Amino acid sequence: MRSVAVAYLLWIPPLGLFGIHRFYNGRIVSGIIWALTAGLAGIGWLVDLFLIPGMVRTCNLEERVYRHDVRLTGGMPGQVPVPAPPGVADGFRSIYCTRCGSAMQVPQEAVGRQYQCPSCRTVVVVPS
Known about the structure:
The chain has 2 domains: 1-82, no CATH class; 85-128, no CATH class. With 128 residues, it is of the alpha+beta class. It has helices at residues 4-11, 20-24, 28-41, 43-73, and strands at 92-96, 103-107, 114-116, 123-125. Strands 1-2 form a two-stranded antiparallel sheet. The longest helix is centred in the middle third of the chain and has 31 residues, at 43-73. Strand 3 and strand 4 form a beta hairpin. Helix 1 packs antiparallel against helix 4 (43-73) and helix 3 (28-41) runs antiparallel to helix 4. The chain is built from 4 helices and 4 strands, in the order H-H-H-H-E-E-E-E.
């Protein structure tokens, strides 16, 4: 799990001007752009002051979803899942809130439906 504090430490010049905080959060392409342009001439680097908490939150959520997919499939995401883990009823699957990362169980046929996260009240659309 990534830390906002570490991301801010990596944001401090000179590392931040070369996009090290972006590499830390898994944003390789924008990290390369930052490295080649000195943080878009410092303007993008300054904007990142406000974007870092969201970058860390997104990175942590993506990592959590990836680990969940690997645990279910026993391999890489996108493979056919093995039987549901204990605690997930037949005919249901787990999805994660895009804001707080809380897990929710929804019916298998609920693709495209909207559900409200019980933790943060964010409306989540069930992906396919």
